[in-house]
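Pasting as-is:
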Amino acid sequence: MARRGMTSRQAIFVTEYLVDLNATQAAIRAGYSPKTAAWTGPRLLAKAHVAEAVEKAMAARAQRTEITADLVVAELAKIAFADPRDLMEWGPEGVTLKESALLTADQAAGVAEVAEGSGRTVRLKKHDKVKALELLGRHIGMFKEKVELSGGVDVDLLEEARRRVTGR
Protein backbone atom coordinates (compact mmCIF):
# COMPACT_ATOMS: atom_id res chain seq x y z
CA MET A 1 0.00 0.00 0.00
CA ALA A 2 1.41 3.41 -0.96
CA ARG A 3 1.84 6.06 1.65
CA ARG A 4 0.19 9.41 1.06
CA GLY A 5 1.73 11.19 -1.97
CA MET A 6 3.96 8.27 -2.94
CA THR A 7 3.81 5.53 -5.49
CA SER A 8 3.81 1.98 -4.16
CA ARG A 9 7.39 1.53 -5.40
CA GLN A 10 8.49 4.65 -3.53
CA ALA A 11 6.86 3.29 -0.37
CA ILE A 12 8.74 0.00 -0.84
CA PHE A 13 11.93 2.01 -1.35
CA VAL A 14 11.39 3.73 2.02
CA THR A 15 10.94 0.37 3.76
CA GLU A 16 13.99 -1.11 2.02
CA TYR A 17 16.12 1.96 2.73
CA LEU A 18 15.63 1.40 6.46
CA VAL A 19 17.25 -2.05 6.16
CA ASP A 20 20.79 -0.79 5.50
CA LEU A 21 20.50 2.93 4.67
CA ASN A 22 21.89 2.19 1.20
CA ALA A 23 19.84 4.13 -1.35
CA THR A 24 21.18 2.22 -4.37
CA GLN A 25 20.44 -1.21 -2.92
CA ALA A 26 17.06 -0.05 -1.62
CA ALA A 27 16.13 1.12 -5.12
CA ILE A 28 17.09 -2.26 -6.58
CA ARG A 29 15.13 -4.15 -3.92
CA ALA A 30 12.14 -1.86 -4.55
CA GLY A 31 12.10 -2.90 -8.20
CA TYR A 32 13.97 -0.08 -9.89
CA SER A 33 16.49 -0.96 -12.59
CA PRO A 34 19.88 -2.06 -11.24
CA LYS A 35 21.51 -0.16 -14.13
CA THR A 36 20.12 3.18 -12.94
CA ALA A 37 19.78 2.48 -9.22
CA ALA A 38 22.88 4.53 -8.36
CA TRP A 39 21.02 7.55 -9.73
CA THR A 40 17.51 6.55 -8.73
CA GLY A 41 18.17 5.96 -5.01
CA PRO A 42 19.67 9.39 -4.28
CA ARG A 43 17.07 11.04 -6.55
CA LEU A 44 14.29 9.43 -4.50
CA LEU A 45 15.87 10.61 -1.23
CA ALA A 46 15.98 14.14 -2.66
CA LYS A 47 12.19 14.14 -3.05
CA ALA A 48 10.65 15.90 -0.05
CA HIS A 49 7.80 13.42 0.45
CA VAL A 50 10.16 10.42 0.32
CA ALA A 51 12.69 12.06 2.68
CA GLU A 52 9.86 12.89 5.08
CA ALA A 53 8.61 9.29 4.99
CA VAL A 54 12.14 8.00 5.71
CA GLU A 55 12.50 10.42 8.61
CA LYS A 56 9.14 9.40 10.09
CA ALA A 57 9.88 5.69 9.68
CA MET A 58 13.27 6.10 11.37
CA ALA A 59 11.70 8.01 14.25
CA ALA A 60 9.03 5.32 14.65
CA ARG A 61 11.70 2.61 14.66
CA ALA A 62 13.75 4.49 17.27
CA GLN A 63 10.67 4.84 19.47
CA ARG A 64 9.69 1.20 18.98
CA THR A 65 13.17 -0.14 19.80
CA GLU A 66 13.83 2.49 22.48
CA ILE A 67 17.28 3.01 20.98
CA THR A 68 18.21 6.64 21.22
CA ALA A 69 21.23 8.60 20.11
CA ASP A 70 22.08 9.05 23.79
CA LEU A 71 22.21 5.27 24.32
CA VAL A 72 24.43 4.77 21.29
CA VAL A 73 26.78 7.57 22.33
CA ALA A 74 26.95 6.22 25.89
CA GLU A 75 27.89 2.75 24.59
CA LEU A 76 30.53 4.21 22.29
CA ALA A 77 31.92 6.17 25.24
CA LYS A 78 32.28 2.96 27.26
CA ILE A 79 34.42 1.51 24.48
CA ALA A 80 36.33 4.69 23.72
CA PHE A 81 37.34 5.42 27.28
CA ALA A 82 37.81 1.86 28.55
CA ASP A 83 40.95 1.34 30.60
CA PRO A 84 42.62 -2.07 30.02
CA ARG A 85 43.72 -2.08 33.67
CA ASP A 86 40.07 -2.58 34.58
CA LEU A 87 40.13 -5.94 32.74
CA MET A 88 43.60 -7.32 33.38
CA GLU A 89 46.78 -7.02 35.36
CA TRP A 90 50.27 -7.46 34.01
CA GLY A 91 53.75 -7.46 35.37
CA PRO A 92 56.90 -9.56 35.59
CA GLU A 93 54.81 -12.64 36.40
CA GLY A 94 52.72 -12.29 33.22
CA VAL A 95 49.19 -11.23 32.36
CA THR A 96 46.15 -12.14 34.45
CA LEU A 97 42.54 -11.43 33.51
CA LYS A 98 40.27 -10.15 36.23
CA GLU A 99 37.26 -12.28 37.08
CA SER A 100 34.34 -11.42 34.82
CA ALA A 101 31.92 -11.51 37.76
CA LEU A 102 33.83 -8.61 39.31
CA LEU A 103 33.60 -6.38 36.23
CA THR A 104 30.99 -3.67 36.03
CA ALA A 105 28.70 -3.54 33.01
CA ASP A 106 30.64 -0.51 31.77
CA GLN A 107 33.94 -2.37 32.03
CA ALA A 108 32.58 -5.48 30.30
CA ALA A 109 31.14 -3.37 27.46
CA GLY A 110 34.65 -2.86 26.08
CA VAL A 111 35.25 -6.59 25.63
CA ALA A 112 34.60 -7.99 22.16
CA GLU A 113 35.77 -11.54 22.79
CA VAL A 114 37.49 -13.80 25.30
CA ALA A 115 38.82 -17.12 24.05
CA GLU A 116 40.77 -19.90 25.68
CA GLY A 117 43.15 -21.83 23.47
CA SER A 118 45.31 -24.88 23.85
CA GLY A 119 47.70 -24.84 26.79
CA ARG A 120 45.19 -22.67 28.68
CA THR A 121 46.28 -19.57 26.78
CA VAL A 122 43.71 -16.83 26.98
CA ARG A 123 43.06 -14.19 24.39
CA LEU A 124 41.16 -10.99 25.19
CA LYS A 125 39.97 -8.89 22.28
CA LYS A 126 38.59 -5.42 22.94
CA HIS A 127 36.30 -3.41 20.71
CA ASP A 128 38.04 -0.91 18.43
CA LYS A 129 38.82 2.08 20.65
CA VAL A 130 40.00 4.30 17.77
CA LYS A 131 36.82 3.68 15.78
CA ALA A 132 34.68 4.47 18.83
CA LEU A 133 36.63 7.70 19.36
CA GLU A 134 36.21 8.58 15.68
CA LEU A 135 32.45 8.03 15.82
CA LEU A 136 32.16 10.09 19.00
CA GLY A 137 34.28 12.83 17.46
CA ARG A 138 32.02 12.95 14.42
CA HIS A 139 28.97 13.03 16.66
CA ILE A 140 30.18 16.13 18.47
CA GLY A 141 31.27 17.79 15.21
CA MET A 142 34.96 17.49 15.95
CA PHE A 143 35.83 16.34 12.44
CA LYS A 144 34.40 18.43 9.64
CA GLU A 145 34.23 16.95 6.18
CA LYS A 146 34.61 19.67 3.63
CA VAL A 147 31.75 19.65 1.17
CA GLU A 148 31.23 22.54 -1.16
CA LEU A 149 27.84 23.11 -2.67
CA SER A 150 26.87 26.12 -4.66
CA GLY A 151 23.14 26.29 -4.98
CA GLY A 152 20.75 23.38 -4.67
CA VAL A 153 20.86 20.02 -6.40
CA ASP A 154 19.12 20.14 -9.75
CA VAL A 155 17.48 16.72 -10.00
CA ASP A 156 16.41 17.39 -13.60
CA LEU A 157 20.02 18.15 -14.55
CA LEU A 158 21.16 14.90 -12.91
CA GLU A 159 18.45 13.01 -14.76
CA GLU A 160 19.50 14.56 -18.07
CA ALA A 161 23.13 13.58 -17.41
CA ARG A 162 22.02 10.04 -16.58
CA ARG A 163 20.09 9.83 -19.87
CA ARG A 164 23.17 10.95 -21.80
CA VAL A 165 25.33 8.34 -20.11
CA THR A 166 22.88 5.44 -20.38
CA GLY A 167 21.34 6.44 -23.70
CA ARG A 168 17.80 6.18 -22.25
